[in-house]
Structure formats: C-alpha cells, structure tokens
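Researcher: Quick test of sequence recovery. Tokens follow.
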C-alpha cells in the first residue's frame, strides 16, 4: 500500500516537473536581450548599437524573431530606430540580416549631438509554446567631438579641450611621459540648462619639460579618445648656433673678382 502511494507521489512529482519544464520553455526564463549600458560615438561618425538575443538551448523559434529599437522616452510609436521611422530613414541598418539571427545590432550612421539618448532593443519570439517578448536594459548613446590641443605661448601652458554630451562620467586627464599630471583646474563650461546639446571639458597644464603630453577622455573607466602632443622647447644654444653659408659667400665674391680680372686683362691688352 505504502509502496503504491509512494510511486503515485513520484508519478505526480514527475507530472509537476514536466509541467514546470513546459512553463519554463513557454516563458523562457533563460532568454535575455543583452545590450551594453553605454555606447559612445564620435560626432559625425557611425556607431554600432549592439544587441544580442540569448535563448536557452531547448528554445526553438518557429518564425523569425521581430525586432524593435525604441527611442526612450518612448513618446510615440513613430519614433523608432528599427524598423526606422521617417527621421531615421537611410541612417540605420541591421548588421546581421539573417532572418533567425540572434545578433540584433544596428549600425547608426552619422551620429549627431541630437542623437544622444537612450535606445532600447526589444525582441518578440515565437516558439511552439507561444509568443513572448524580451526587452534589453537600454543603451545610453553619448557623443564626443574631436579633441584639440592649444599651446599658449605666453604662460607656456597646454590646453586640452573636447566637447561631449553632458554626462558626469566624463573625465579628462593629462599625462606627461606616461605619468598622470595633477591639474586640479579641470573645468566644464556650458551647463546642463544651456540650450547647447554639449559641454566643453578642458584641462590646462604647464609645460615644464619636453616629452610627450597625452590628453585622455574617459567615460567612467573606459578610454574613449586620446590625443598626443610632442613638446620640444626651443633650446637656447641651438638658436645661437647658425651655420654660415660660406659657399654662397665665396660664389658671390667670385663673380665680381672674375669680372674685374677680365676687365683688367682687357685694359692691359688695349694699352699695349
Ligand atoms: C537589467 O537590469 C536589471 C535591474 O537593474 C538587472 O537585474 C538585470 O540583470 C539587467 N539585465 C541585463 C541583461 O543586464
Ligand atoms: C553582430 O554582428 C556585427 C556585424 O556582423 C558584428 O560586428 C558584431 O560583433 C556581432 N555581435 C556579436 C555579439 O556577435
Ligand atoms: C594661460 O593663458 C590662457 C590665456 O591665454 C589661460 O586661459 C590659461 O588658463 C593660462 N594657463 C595657466 C596654466 O595659467
């Protein structure tokens, strides 16, 4: 009796387990849409917005997944990066065009200041067990312009400047021959309330000795862009040391001398 009961229990357990498995495969707890928290792009350049769909091994899609890239905050359905709405036409392309591909990264062309913002990758999947949707955690697209170095002659200082999307994570650092310089006068001009879509970060250092000065732009821990400046102060000795063009002097002297000699010879011949 007890044995029968026990086998019934295990039987029931197995049914429960199978039901549970079915539920899991139906909703797919292991399925995720992964996208990086931050994507950086140089102004006017192209950016890859990565998005990867991960499915558990037992999940088989019966029709191709449907992809959406939403522009956050989503105010209307007309504002979509993918499929591109009117304002993104010709600027966005799917990188992997395979219908069943799980790589849903898109190429975003000619990124402008106005494109800074958050983009969310959404994928709808249909399996035998049903249809479900996965949302990525959204990527923040931040933009930066080209970094510039300005040498100021009168106070012998080097100014490194770069325009960036307003983000507190951006930091400029200057290195001299690999050693980080303590500047302390780092500044961001332009404020978050200004109408400008960017702020200017600048860092000034005094040029003390020759060598390589490098300005680096970091966003949180990641190096975004860097610029190198080779500094060779004019050496006083080199300025005084001036090579005389003796050959030129000799040549210049030779011409009138020959002319005089010819003249003299001619005069002597005439006298005779
Ligand atoms: C998305 O964010 C949530 C909450 O912050 C976190 O628990 C989850 O792991 C994130 N997912 C991915 C795929 O990074
Ligand atoms: C997705 O595809 C693009 C283009 O083929 C490639 O650059 C990228 O590395 C791929 N991403 C992954 C996660 O494989
Ligand atoms: C050097 O002079 C410029 C103005 O020409 C000024 O903006 C900068 O702050 C000065 N740098 C230092 C380190 O004093």
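Model:
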């Amino acid at each position: 009796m007890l044995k029968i009961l026990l086998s019934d229990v295990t039987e029931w357990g197995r049914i429960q387990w199978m039901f549970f498995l079915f539920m899991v495969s139906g909703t797919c707890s292991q399925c995720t849409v992964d996208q990086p928290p931050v994507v950086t792009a140089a102004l006017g350049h192209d950016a890859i917005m990565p998005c990867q769909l991960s499915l558990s091994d037992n999940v088989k899609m019966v029709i191709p997944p449907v992809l959406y890239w939403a522009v956050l905050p989503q105010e209307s359905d007309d504002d979509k990066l993918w499929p591109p709405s009117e304002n993104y036409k010709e600027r966005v392309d799917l990188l992997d065009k395979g219908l069943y591909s799980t790589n849903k990264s898109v190429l975003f062309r000619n990124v402008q200041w106005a494109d800074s913002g958050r983009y969310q990758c959404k994928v709808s999947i249909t399996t035998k067990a049903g249809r479900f949707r996965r949302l990525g955690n959204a990527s923040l697209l931040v933009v930066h312009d080209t970094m510039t170095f300005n040498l100021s002659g009168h106070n012998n200082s080097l100014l490194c400047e770069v325009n960036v999307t307003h983000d507190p994570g951006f930091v400029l650092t200057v290195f001299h021959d690999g050693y980080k310089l303590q500047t302390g006068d780092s500044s961001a001009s332009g404020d978050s309330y200004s109408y400008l879509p960017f702020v200017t970060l600048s860092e000034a250092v005094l040029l003390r000795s020759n060598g390589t000065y490098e300005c680096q732009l970091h966003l949180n821990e990641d190096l975004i862009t860097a610029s190198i400046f080779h500094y060779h102060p004019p050496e006083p000795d080199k300025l005084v040391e001036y090579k005389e063009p003796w050959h030129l002097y000799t040549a210049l002297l030779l011409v009138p001398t020959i002319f005089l000699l010819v003249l003299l010879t001619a005069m002597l011949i005439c006298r005779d």
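Residues 111 and 256 are 69 Å apart (CA to CA).
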